[in-house]
Design brief:
The protein is built from 14 helices and 22 strands. The protein is an alpha+beta fold. The termini are far apart.
């Protein structure tokens, strides 16, 4: 409290100087206390009076500062540190009470310090002991002397998808021509154009003025609503001090939103106190300019009054020269003196370590839902898998401040089986836009629509790499359908289909059983470099109702016009059944460079027949596109009704199939383990199974079991010896046959045959030696094994009582 005492002395000195000035002017001086020759005794008396007043001052502690109640927290289950204080904590509370009384006496205009609130058990606890340092890879982050605890953003905003660009086919770049056709003259009136432009500008200016007046009116309405609690609210924030951990400047962190703010922010009106798990500091600086002029040097006792004097106290920030000089002076003054230990260590934290279960961590907020209200907007967040439709975030914007008129709604989804990621609903236009991630069954990327009914305005965009036909976008209206393609082998990139009025038929689904009649099909193709430009079709138009086919070819680089051709499509027979012959008037063409073979009727007939087949194919593809639209709409309706969610195979709590499979595997492994742990193989089990299970074994039955066991084992030994002997004889006979064959054909054998023969003989002799050794070993060990089994049978606990007579 040295700074507080210095403050009192400065006030007394200022009063004495003021009294001296008044005495020189001849004014009457009214002193609160007469200080004459007894100045020293009176000073001691003032100090005693001050001490007596401080001791009589009582601090009003709020009855309940915690929001927890006995109904929400089981106090009996809390640890003992929550329900009582240790001797060191009691001593700290006494020190805090003394500090608070002195602070209230010297700074009566300040807000009472927040030192020892009540915890869940209504026990006063010092605020610094509520902080529990966590052992992390960066422990200094939890020390406010270096850096405060960072709060993670547990509810991160879902990023918006990238803006979707419309699919535009790049036009073929044509090099500049030497000659060009002059454009026609503009015969429109410039005066009328200027008047029209001026009129549009006036309308636009009037609209902008109206919007500006409306915004100013709304701002005036908001400003009129004064805040009666402005400057009276107290909030706890996290202060991160600059210095260590490469923190360039100090800043604040809101613990509820994890958003960072500069210390120069206007939202911060002042700071009453700071604390960490080691000490407590009171701000002694003037906050008339908010927090902009505050110096966050906790080692300066003039600006920050500390509670505990300890070894962990922050040092005053000085330059290197001042610090070196100060250290030298201290060394000279403290030479030969012993340091007096007047420190008081902060008691350890009484708070238990926070443990968050995976289920609670996944909820991200209480009950898994959080609502944030903004100006003309509302943001709602949910934990994954909390909603059955996979909804995790919803942003609603409103037209008015009361949030009664909705403008648009954006909904974000996760873990959807239909890969739906974002749904944008515009209430003003009624337009709905669905965005999908890769993986949809129909490769759908974006779906814009106003109604889910077929043959209405809609736009579908696809992932072209996931489709065989390379479809990128499909635009549909009640009368037209336009499709854009990319990367096709036939170079098709555009198809436009015009429909006519449907013939009325009684049908349940007219769109499928009674398709719309096709009037016109327009197809455009990109340049095929393998074909000449005069033979490479750029645009193909099927005028079905007029029975005409129009072709436009690509323009050559050295030409300014392109060739065109038109076919009059007629039926192959007339009304009388006579076959119609191809005539020159059925093909009208304009060729930049005429070719002889194109003028032949046979060539024109073959081209027309080919175009007829392509027309049928185009009509069929248009019909398939209509059916695909119906299929997608039906699939989307089913997906919206069911809205199934995908569950990872590693999520064993939600994935029932994975859970069942894991339980089955664990059951099999457990059974296998039990079989392995069971006793060794029982050599009497096959023979005891032949006896009645409920009857007690007699001596005759015991002898019979022993004899059958020995007889069976003896037979097994004999069978094994016979098996080895048979293999030995077989290998010997084959070797003899091979040797006889060699003797007969020795003269005609080649070098390779002799090498193969020698290799075979070597391997055969090796197998014969192994079999001979095994047979000899079996003959030696068989009698020993038989005697060992007989001894085990005599000592077997199930037969031992019947074998005593024979032993």
């Amino acid at each position: 409290m040295e700074v507080l005492k210095e403050k009192v002395e400065e006030e007394e000195e200022a009063e004495r100087e003021e009294a001296a000035v008044r005495a020189e002017r001849g004014e009457k001086v009214v002193r609160p206390m007469e200080v004459r020759r007894e100045e020293a005794p009176m000073t001691q008396e003032m100090l005693r009076d001050l001490e007596r007043k401080l001791s009589d001052t009582e601090m009003a502690i709020p009855e309940k500062l915690s929001t927890f109640t006995k109904d929400t927290i089981a106090i009996s289950k809390l640890p003992l540190s929550y329900q009582s204080n240790t001797l060191k904590e009691e001593h700290l509370l006494q020190v805090a009470d003394s500090f608070s009384r002195q602070y209230s006496h010297l700074c009566p205009d300040r807000v009472p310090l927040f030192l020892h609130p009540l915890n869940e058990c209504e026990v006063p606890k010092f605020v610094s002991t509520t902080i529990r340092p966590t052992l992390m890879p960066y422990p200094e982050l939890y020390n406010w002397d270096s850096c405060a605890q960072f709060v993670s953003d547990f509810l991160s905003m879902v990023p918006l998808p990238d803006p979707l660009k419309p699919v535009v086919q790049e036009e073929e770049k044509v090099p500049p021509k030497k000659y060009a056709v002059k454009p026609p003259r503009d015969l429109t009136s410039r005066f009328q154009q200027e008047q029209e432009t001026k009129k549009q500008e006036e309308i636009k200016a009037e609209e902008e003025r109206r919007l500006r007046e409306e915004e100013e009116r709304l701002l005036d309405v908001e400003k009129a609503k004064t805040d009666p609690l402005h400057g009276l609210r107290v909030h706890s924030w996290v202060l991160v001090l600059s210095g260590k951990r490469e923190v360039p400047e100090s800043f604040f962190i809101d613990p509820f939103t994890a958003h960072s703010y500069s210390t120069q922010d206007d939202h911060f009106l002042g700071i009453e106190s700071l604390w960490n798990h080691k000490n407590y500091w009171v701000n002694m600086q003037d906050c008339w300019n908010c927090c902009k002029d505050l110096v966050f040097d906790l080692g300066d006792p003039v600006r920050w009054e500390y509670l505990l004097l300890g070894t962990e106290k922050s040092h005053l920030s000085l330059t290197e020269e001042e610090e070196d000089g100060l250290n030298d002076d201290d060394d000279v003054e403290n030479l030969g003196k012993e340091d007096e230990d007047k420190s008081f260590d902060m008691p350890p934290s009484w708070v238990e370590q926070i443990e968050i279960s995976p289920e609670a961590f996944e909820t991200r907020c209480p009950n898994g839902k959080k609502v944030i209200q903004y100006k003309r907007a509302k943001l709602e967040k949910w934990a994954p898998y909390l909603n059955s439709n996979g909804l995790v975030c919803r942003l609603t914007t409103y037209e008015d401040l009361e949030c009664t008129k909705t403008l648009e709604i954006k909904e974000w989804f996760q873990n959807r089986e239909d890969m739906l990621e974002l749904k944008h609903i515009d209430k003003s236009t009624g337009l709905n836009v669905d965005y999908f991630k890769p993986g949809h069954p129909q490769a759908l990327r974006v779906h814009s629509y106003k109604s889910m009914q077929p043959e209405t305005d809609r736009i579908m965009e696809f992932y072209d790499r996931a489709r065989v036909d390379g479809l990128v976008k499909r635009e549909e209206t009640s009368k037209t359908m336009t499709e854009y393609y990319r990367g096709r082998s036939d170079f098709l990139f555009y198809r436009h289909v015009s429909f006519g009025d449907r013939v009325k038929k009684l049908s349940l689904n007219s769109a499928e059983s009674n398709p719309r009649p096709i009037v016109k099909i327009t197809e455009r193709f990109a340049r095929n470099p393998e074909q000449p430009a005069d033979e490479d079709v750029a645009e193909r138009v099927f005028l079905i109702s007029e029975e005409r086919i129009q072709l436009r070819y690509h323009c050559r680089d050295d030409h300014i016009t392109a060739s065109k051709r038109e076919f009059l499509r007629r039926s192959e027979v007339d009304n009388k059944g006579n076959k119609i012959v191809m005539t020159p008037d059925m093909c009208i063409s304009f060729e930049v460079e005429p070719m002889e073979h194109t003028k032949k009727l046979l060539c024109q007939y073959e081209a027309m027949m080919k175009l007829k087949n392509e027309e049928k194919l185009s009509r069929h593809q248009a019909w398939e596109s209509e059916l695909e639209v119906l299929e997608i709409l039906k699939l989307r309706e089913e997906e919206e009704e069911e809205h199934r969610l995908t569950i990872s195979i590693y999520d064993t709590k939600r994935n029932e199939k994975s859970k069942e499979y894991r339980e089955a595997m664990e059951r099999v492994m457990h059974e296998e383990h039990l079989r392995q742990v069971e006793a060794p193989l029982d050599y009497l089990a096959p023979f005891l199974a032949q006896l009645p299970p409920s009857e007690k074994m007699t001596r005759w039955q015991a002898m019979r079991v022993k004899d059958e066991c020995l007889s069976d084992f003896k037979q097994r030994l004999i069978d094994k010896a016979n098996l080895i002997q048979a293999r030995f004889e077989k290998e010997t006979q084959e070797l003899q046959k091979k040797q006889q064959w060699y003797q007969e054909n020795q003269v005609t054998l080649t070098v390779e045959d002799e090498d193969l023969y020698l290799s075979y003989c070597s391997q055969a002799m090796f197998r014969i030696r192994i079999l001979e050794q095994r047979l000899n070993r079996h003959k030696e060990l068989a009698p020993l094994k038989y005697l060992a089994l007989e001894e085990k049978l005599y000592k077997d606990p199930r037969l031992v009582e019947f074998m005593k007579v024979f032993v």
